[in-house]
Amino acid sequence: MTDLFPDATDTEIKASLFNAKRCFNKYRKLDGTVRANFLREIKKELRNAQNKIISIAQSETKLGKLRLEMELSRTIGEIELFANMAEKGEWLKTAVREQNKKTSQSTLHTENIPIGPVLVIGACNFPIAISVVGTDTISALAVGCPVIVKAHPGHPKTCQLLAAIVLIAEKKSQIPKDTFQLIHGEKYEVTQKLVVHPDISCVAFTGSLAGGKALSEIVFNRKIPIPFHAEMGSINPIVALPGKISENHNKLAVDYVQAVNLFSGQMCTKPGVIFLLKSKKNSAFIKDLQEAVVKQKILPMLNPEVFNNYENCINWLKQELTLIATNENDNSGMENAGFCRIFETDSKQFLYRPELRVEAFGPASLLVHCEDEEELFNCINSLEGTLTASIHATEQENALAKNIVLKLESIAGRLLWNGFPPGVIPGIATHHGGPWPATTDSRHTSIGKEAYRRFVRPVCRQGFP
């Protein structure tokens, strides 16, 4: 960590946790309109500082001005979504059973309450929307939970700027001091000390499977375990049936490659594998795919660490599989260039080697040939939990597609029909989650209005006036 943002000391960590716990009851008792005004003040400050935010985020992540502008706009929109929810008290989900004098049954009143201080550990690839002012932070604040954010070392300046904005809004809204706090820490020990501390009531994490798995074990082994909501790796399989390939193999190939290469493949919903049944049109599809890859715009990856991890993965795949499409011959001279690569194998190899069923974070994907429906079903059955799964089929293939969907929905949180998964639109019906290892709890979403459910718990009052 740079001298500008040194790792938090033990004293600083303990003080932050103590302060979050201390202000919890004050903050949770505030009227929903007060919390809504706080969120809207954050939104206002984000708009005022948007040019500075974009500039600093671009200098740290190289994601591009357009992408970051879209991300900021999405974040501002979602803040208003949660401000409305706080104002109307919708998150309380009040349920009442009135007293029955004939049976002597007393009144039951069940209502959600905030779970307590929340620790947020954001993502490297979404410095705004899944970071300091992202869904985790905003939804937790909306329902009355103080928040401590662990700054991501990949974009510490962006985190610091966004934290300063939240603190300005906190002061203007007369919200209890330390309701929101930011802690820097590049060393793993900083995060570890935060998640094990008894004053933390819940953790929201977005990151790698290795990081999420390690932290989930630490949380589970706490003296008092707490909810740990992690969104981790995802392979996001696609099944393309022969009829759909015959209908328009060129469009399917181009759309698939664009989904793989979007933002240099640094999306948790990037398609990591596409399954093809044996078909005469497969060769035409692959030819179109190869031409589409060559035409893809090369973008820089987030940072040297992400780039090196991607290249190490690619070098291994090149030794084990057939590389059928790449644009790496385009000698752009770009630093940390994310070249698009598509590899090819058959279902037998895919089933025999579980290491092929793991996400490669970057613009790479695997095409798997299946001889028949049985091989296709075996491949789907071999997959672990994933955020999304997509099927491309014609109306004439509905009977087969129904059987495939039944299998896909057992492993995925979101299913797409004749579509591609990158790009999640926040809303009331959004579900961004899935079975392990996509997330640690498939019942919850980390994007959209229902994300608040991770930070509340129901309390039933019986016989109260």
Report on this structure.
- This protein has helices at residues 10-28, 32-48, 50-61, 65-88, 135-142, 156-172, 188-196, 209-220, 242-247, 249-261, 282-295, 304-320, 347-352, 373-382, 398-408, and strands at residues 95-97, 108-114, 118-121, 147-150, 180-183, 202-206, 228-231, 237-240, 273-277, 299-300, 322-326, 337-338, 341-346, 364-370, 386-392, 412-417, 456-462.
- The strands form four sheets. Strands 11-13-14-9-8-15-16 form a seven-stranded mixed sheet, sandwiched between helices.
- The chain is an alpha/beta fold.
- The mean pLDDT is 93.
- The radius of gyration is 24 Å and the shape is globular.
- The chain has two domains: 10-232 and 439-462, Aldehyde Dehydrogenase, Chain A, domain 1 (3-Layer(aba) Sandwich), CATH 3.40.605.10; 237-417, Aldehyde Dehydrogenase, Chain A, domain 2 (3-Layer(aba) Sandwich).
Provide a compact summary of the structure.
By secondary structure, the chain is α/β, with parallel strands linked by helices.
Helix content: 40-55%
| Structure summary, number of beta strands | 17
What integer value in Å does the Rg equal? 24 Å
CATH top-level class of the largest domain: Alpha Beta
Strand order of the largest sheet: 11-13-14-9-8-15-16
**What can be said about the biggest beta sheet?**
7 strands, mixed
Average pLDDT: 93
Distance between the ends: 56 Å
Task: Characterize the overall form.
Answer: globular
Strand content: 15-25%
* Unreliable parts: none
CATH superfamily of the largest domain: Aldehyde Dehydrogenase, Chain A, domain 1
Number of domains: 2
Structural class estimated from helices and strands: alpha/beta
The CATH architecture assignment of the largest domain turns out to be 3-Layer(aba) Sandwich
CATH topology of the largest domain: Aldehyde Dehydrogenase, Chain A, domain 1
